[in-house]
Write a structure and sequence with these properties.
By secondary structure, this protein is mainly α. The protein contains 14 helices and no strands. The longest helix has 31 residues.
Length: 314
Amino acid sequence: MKNIAKNSLRAWILAARPKTLSGALVSVVTAVALFVRLSGGIGGMGRGEVQMALLCAGFAVLMQVASNFINDWYDFIRGNDREDRLGPKRACQQGWISPEAMKKGILLVVLLAGAVGLWLLFVVVRSISGAVWPTMFFLVGVGLLCVAGAFLYSSHLSSKGWGDVLVLLFFGIVPVCVTFFLLAQTLSSAALVLGFSVGLVVDTLLVVNNFRDRDTDRSVGKRTLVVLIGEKMGSRLYGGLGIVAVALIVLLDFMLHGSPTALSLLTLLYLPLHLSAWRKMRQIWNGRKLNEVLSLTARNILVYAFLVSSGMLF
């Protein structure tokens, strides 16, 4: 990657961290599947619902890109990214993108996310019945909260042990519940349970990332949750997140059907994959080879989304 031209398209693509973008889509995909299940089938997805689902997905991906850019820039100016980092190379630290260009890129992506949000607002206003203003204020508030969360994650909270809480909120509970609310025009305890499960699964990616970087994070004063609780508890946290996430889907299945169905049975297939990744994490324990566990975890998140969505739809 030494031949990457400064501020080139390839540099921006790498800075966006494409492998992380699937995590932003899991919440929307599973929320849509829940809506289809509760609305009686795919026939509940009219043109307006399809537009809202696609726009929610677009907003989620753009906010993930913005968060990645912000994280790249903040870690560079704070000196957190060193030459001996174990994870993927960062754009600013490698000189692929200048700090000034990165700031402009952050602004552009946030503005694009805002434009998608306004488009979503327009579609929602056309689709909903009843009072419009409360929903408009709610959506604008959620959008601003997402932008604030993206900045606060990198600037303050991720280095103080709050990163996992933000992932649970902004990659699980908030996008699942908001997407479901827009489609169904009502809130649901089922969406909340699903949001918790999705958030826990997506957080496995952050936990293995922070587990890999625990020594370098500690040396630069970055107090992630893994640094705070120690490596043994950090490993157990990784394993526990996936187990609890599956248990929540089984609970959701009972809430929806009163007994286990294909939703529980299919989601249980995620568990061997997760436990296998956890075992490999414990075997490797230190070093760059933990990136293999990171790749397995990213794959497992996609498998989880496929299994949960399939269980709800079929």
